[in-house]
Amino acid sequence: MKNHNLVEAISPREILVESRPARDRLGKAVDGLHNVWITLNNPNELNSYTTSMAKEVILALREASNDRAAVAVVLTGAGTRAFCSGGNTREYAEQYAGAPGEYRQYMRLFNDMVSTLLQCDKPVICRVNGIRVGGGQEIGMACDFSIASDLALFSQAGPKHGSAPDGGSTDFLPVLVGIERAMYSGTLCETWSAHRFYWLGGLTQIVPALKVEGRWVANPLVVTDRVLDEYGRLVMGEWKSGQAREDGKALLAKGTTDLSLLDEAVEQMCTKLLYTMPDCLIKTIESLRKHKLVHWDKNRETNRAWLSLNMMTEANAGFRAFHYGNKEEREVNFIRLRQRLAEGARWSEELVQEIAPWVTEPSKAARGFTP
User: Could you tell me the CATH number of the domain that includes residue 153?
Assistant: First the structure.
């Protein structure tokens, strides 16, 4: 049989690629069949994807797509903190801010990564082991299924940090949760719990990942039941507040993160996919993917062009502010920016320094900010 891979062999450095045995309904390994696990392996930077990682993911997905013995692909992140926090802010701040031509080439790679997920000849399961933010949310939503730890967090980052979620979220979110909720998430960038995102229709399944004194506990920071709040509104997955949130934090601190139920749920999904006709399965998946693809294919090139040009203005300020800032100060001065633009200010390095002074090397060093 012919080899249809783009390259003869890949030697990944920033991802892990492994074949795990496919298992039947009794949990027994099936001879000659496996699932391909692709792990984003950059846990120190919350599994953010670098330029080279994007290349490796594309090649690994193409290889898995052509793997005749593969039943499914599992895309996940290393560790327990994050699936993927999006693009690598170190690269954004140091390589791409102010360089639209370079970022345009980078976005070609990112777009190809999303397209490769949407064109894979195997079903793709996103194993959400932690936060899924920005571009991480976008590649996650490009997958066919998402199974998440109920400690996972989901959000956009664009308008808060100098971009727009045009790497897939503006295409996929309305399909998953409806236009009004997509509008709210995309513009305000507020964090959704796994319980809320599941309730809204964005996830296939959620499982507990917190173990306290040997027992599983649902995320103690969120309302996990469908209840009425003080205004009579039906809520689920809303963040607790006040004393209830403090009690939740205390319980969270007592426990440990255990992803064994997540792994079990992912394996069960792979087993369910095993018991289907392979060609009928992928045809069904391809037909359902069209609801995402119709928007993605229509918008991705014009979005790539805009995102590249934006590197000269708001992204130039926002990405650097986020990278060089700290927990207390990672956003530009939004009010001052609007005031200066209303006064007719032009985008310049002086304007960037005015709205985010810590992005300059002398100021950054003086104030103790480190990349």
Answer: 3.90.226.10
pLDDT (tens digit, 9 = 90+) per residue, 119-174? 999 999 999 999 999 999 999 999 999 999 999 999 999 999 999 999 999 999 99
- 169, 131: one domain: yes
pLDDT digits (tens, 9 = 90+) for 312-333: 999 999 999 999 988 888 999 9
230: helix, strand or coil:
coil
- Count the domains in the chain: 2
pTM attached to this predicted model: 0.94
Residues 6 or more apart whose Cβ sits within 8 Å of residue 360: 353
Q: Is 330 helix (H, G, I), strand (E, B) or coil?
A: coil
Q: Which domain holds residue 110?
A: 15-209+258-308
Q: What ranges make up the beta strands (E) of 124-204? A: 124-128, 131-133, 145-149, 153-155, 192-193
Count of alpha carbons within 13 angstroms of residue 65, beta-carbon side: 17
Closest CA to 203 of 153, 165, 275: 153
**Cβ contact 219:211 at 8 Å:** no
- Note the pLDDT tens digit of each residue in 204-257: 999 999 999 999 999 999 999 888 877 787 888 999 999 999 999 999 999 999
* CB contact at 8 A, 139 and 85: no
**Cβ atoms of residues 271 and 23 within 8 Å:** yes
Q: Does a structural domain hold residue 8?
A: no
